[in-house]
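Appendix B. One record, verbatim.
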Amino acid sequence: MNAATDQASKRYSLTFLFAGTLFISATLMFILQPLYGKLLLPLLGGSPAVWNTCMVFYQTLLFLGYLYAHYISVKFSSHRQIQIHAVVIAISLVALPIALPENSIPPTESNPTFWLMGTLFLAIGLPFFVVSTTSPLLQKWFSKIGHSTSEDPYYLYGASNAGSMLALLSYPFLIEPNIGLLKQLSAWSLGFGLLCIFIAGCAAVLWRSQKIIITEPSATYEPEELSISTKLHWLALAFVPSSLLLGLTNFISTDIASAPLLWIIPLTLYLLTFILVFSKWANRIHPIMVSLQPIILLPFIAYAFVDPAALPYWLNLILHLLAFFVTVMVCHGELAKNRPHTQHLTNYYLIMSFAGMLGGMFNTFIAPFIFNAVYEYPIMIIAALFLRPGFYSQKISLQLAFPTTLLFIGLAVYFLNDHLSPTLIYSATNALILLTGLSYAFRSRPVTLALLSGVILFFTFGIQNLISNTIFQERSFFGVFSVRESVLADEKGMPEKYHELFHGTTKHGAQRLTADLQTTPLTYYSHQGPIGQLFNIYDRQDQSWEIGSVGLGAGALACYAKPQQHWTQYEIDPLVIDIAKNPKYFTYLKLCGKNLTFKVGDARLSLKQEPNQKFDLLIMDAFSSDSVPTHLLTREAIALYFAKLKPDGILAFHITNRHLELKKVISDHVSHFKLSALIQEFKPKNKIPLVIATDWVVMAKKAETLTPLRQSRLGSWQKLPLYFDMKPWTDDFTNIIGIWK
């Protein structure tokens, strides 16, 4: 190595240049993901599945970017690579500034996944592709510039993931609360321009270094060719964590707590694992994680799956996140430990990105169609155990023996018992917990540990289905819906069966099954509650009202309909309509919905098509879930609702929510539009079956419209308080953090 190259190797500025470029690239990537996802949410009702579908798109583009980086680095000289990449960057500038394509309307009668993928590709495909090529391509360039660390540039991957994690955490806590969407889009475009300048700087360094090194004799070291087994091992080690990430995100929102922004935590931990396994401490951290995994697995399976009711939801959440982090650390630690010579660097990253894409596709396109719940999550927990070091520590046949025997014993007990008594189920649960403790003895035998854990989880889910009395469960783009048959104590203290509809962990309605009570609205919609009071008070004048209702649930509201009225029901998920219409589960619509018209799709888009001043009453019931469709709560949305209401029409908002104070947002709109508004935070005084606490706000243009409600003695209607710390929610700006309880 000559003096010029030796001097270049000592300059820390080169490290900062390349690391800084990777940092900027990753930051742009992970700001664009939530930014564009938020831009799309108004078209798809705020569904968590939008995030998962966007993730698949990003993973797909990431794979294509890595494929491009691998191809040009293998096929072309350094100078030619720079020229080709300059052309690709120039073409990508055509897509700036990024924005939502005009007339973007998703399909209403079919799954919108492919429409969403196509929209993302048209809008941000080119710039995101350029961003996705940066990490492998620049690390490959760095390996050729003659720097003192060029032989092992993988530590730069840590800078990339640090940028990703910083962007991920800064978006909801710094960017979203302070900058509107339009400014975010403009700032991102400027950031992309800055990235192009930094890439040009890295290219200039490579161009000059190749002129210096070109006369040097080529290195004599010839790295070994990659075997198929090595590539498949990398593939598995990257596929499982990718699938596990999306599986845990879905599982949290479905089975633990559907709280806003919870998806950030698993993704942050996922990125943190990459930073740690490619750091200088990796060799010390990895053995610790391998040892910790079976220790954490014991309480994790015992309490998070076998007996989840034994822990509060927040502790259950911590246990899932801890198990996820350690599991991914083991997989990524093995992946980093087996990284190849820099000659195979782009191939290594290509396989990693391909596996990440496959993991996302499995969770988004395959799992929802073959599973009726988020079973891909526990499946990947088992798969991760197979990937522990020591797979061949003992003959596979010997590792299979114990779990297989237990499986046959368990199945025999199940099929030989005609009636599974509570005592038998309790004994089986205790046996599963005992087996969980026993699993630690097989920590050095990955196959036995994985299969034993799989047998435990298999019987665990079977027991849980028996206990929960779930009579229907299905999965759609918008989540997991289930109907459960439960028992209550009626007014005489006698047991009585009833049905409940759940979306994940959020109850969306219930119905008593006795003939004289099947048309009685319950839960949030009871006669004693605010919406029941509203219909009671306006009973004389609402005989021929035109009523619109957003959000169907089990269909209880339909039983307030009168023969002369016409109701238009807006519902984004066709599966909810199918459940509510099926008399095996609920009969509200069959008995009460004679003059009811359904419109499928996002309510705001559907309402735009309605004539102005159509409705006497518009009921907004899309906010009881914690995945709140924020686009239905903006100033523009409120203006739309009142345009569709008659001059003396009423807008009713159901704002019951476990985590968010939606009344703050509505209060600001009331002040801005100079509306009259009343709120009732209803708590039942008497213990009436299935009559629960619920919060409602009613609004009108004229104060006298709400006078009968305010003067009534049926409930405690209060004037909606003012909040002076609220920044207005608009289509350009919403801030979930600002209304967290």
